[in-house]
Amino acid sequence: MAFELPALPYANNALEPYITARTLDFHHGKHHNAYIVNLNNLTKDTPLASAPLERIILDTVGDAAKAGIFNNAAQVWNHTFYWKAMKPKGGGAPTGNVAARIDEAFGGYVAFREQFKTAAVTQFGSGWAWLVLDGGSLKIVKTGNADTPIAHGQTPLITCDVWEHAYYLDYQNRRPDYVDTFLDHLVNWDFAADNLG
User: Fold this and answer.
1) pLDDT of 197 strictly over 90
2) At what angle do helices 189-196 and 96-106 cross, to 10 degrees?
3) d(CA 143, CA 23)
4) Contact at 8 Å (CB) between 106 and 115?
5) Could you report the per-residue pLDDT of 150-176, keeping only the tens digit for each?
6) How far apart are CA 185 and CA 171, in angstroms?
7) What domains does the chain contain, in order, with CATH numbers?
């Protein structure tokens, strides 16, 4: 069974004015879809063609001969997760268990926000900033290119895509402004709470 591009969890204009429909048309419709097409081509007629994405990622991570499969599978997974990590009228400080765990791990939302933004802005080149559960503790990590926390035994709660195609049409080279907008207006803390369990 071939992998298929998952639908966005909202209309392509639902995140405006913060992320425009034009950006989502390119980012979801072109970039994310290209990873799907590539993954299908790379896994066709192999046992991986019907494997779950997580299994493909774990089976190919660190294997130079399967780097293309890992990169495309991880990018399909990362992007699918990223769409869910945002919602219309999102952003701001979390509440409930997520807020309590952020207070415990970082000393409060303000400190978390500063550290998350720093991770996102200082990721050199392309990559991702993540809030993860690692060994029972919340941590902020950043990954380069297609790398993903699930390849390292961590449970992602939220992510911010800092590849240029995620923000360039709307923010040009102003990655800090995009990250501020993600945190202040888009991040889906309900999704984070679901992932925290």
Assistant:
1) no
2) 80
3) 22
4) yes
5) 999 999 999 999 999 999 999 999 999
6) 15
7) 21-84 (1.10.287.990), 96-196 (3.55.40.20)
How would you write the chain as a 3-class SS string?
CCCCCCCCCCCCCCCCCCCCHHHHHHHHHHHHHHHHHHHHHHHCCCHHHHCCHHHHHHHHCCCHHHHHHHHHHHHHHHHHHHHHCECCCCCCCCCHHHHHHHHHHHCCHHHHHHHHHHHHHHCCCCEEEEEEEECCEEEEEEEECCCCHHHHCCEEEEEEECCHHHCHHHHCCCHHHHHHHHHHHHECHHHHHHHHC
Residue recorded with tokens 């807020």: 99
Give 9-67 pLDDT, tens digit per residue: 999 999 999 999 999 999 999 999 999 999 999 999 999 999 999 999 999 999 999 99
The 10s digit of each residue's pLDDT in 101-117 is: 999 999 999 999 999 99
CB atoms within 10 A of CB 67: 13
pTM of the model: 0.97
